[in-house]
Amino acid sequence: MASMWSPWRGCKKCSTGCLHCYIHKGDAKRGINTSNIIKTKQFDYPIAKNKNGSYKMKAGLVYLCFSTDFLIEEADAWREDAWRMIKERSDCHFLFLTKRISRLKDCLPPDWNNGYENVTICCTIEDQDSADKRLSIFTSLPIKHRVITAQPLIEKIDISNYLDNIEEVVVGGESDKEARILDYSWVLSIREQCLNANVNFTFRQLGTHFVKDGQSYTIKTNLLMSQARKANIDIKIRDKNAIYTNYF
What we know:
248 residues; alpha/beta; three-stranded mixed sheet; 21% strand; 6 helices; seven-stranded parallel sheet
């Protein structure tokens, strides 16, 4: 079972993909100001130890900063310590998503070189504009394990020029009453691009408002992931050593 590590919490909307962010919606219901970026009590979790000297956090996959962005500006003062803990826990594999890939170069540790073997970076995109801007940067950076996450996908996109050295592409729709439409043809288009490039592909979830063959559907939130699995269109390339599968 994977672990969760949130060294800080809070985030700020930075793109059209953030429009219906579930973190902001959840915080609003609890009266929390999401824009207030704070260090958490869990900050030292990866290196915290039990009385017998063993690590409290088990070895294996670690979902990092899933309620914020690891590269957010307000966390610059804390990130060096976070990298140090990531390096210490070489028995763990840390995975984080970011919409701020343009900041990565300035946020890397001095000994990063061609990337840490135990870190997977997922660059998130939502439309052609974000794909062209972020992926052109993403594919030029020194990263050992890289994934593209197209969620929420809000229009048909072409990412075929950015698939070299990508381990997996994950696609999903938006879950919200006012969610933007996900057209199944857009999903299949990305799948075809991955197939042609010999890249793993995962259809993670439908959108609340889903279109297939011109027919519109409204899907309950608790069925979005299971219905995507039933489509049975995932691609798992045997010679690809992706660290994770269906990581959400």
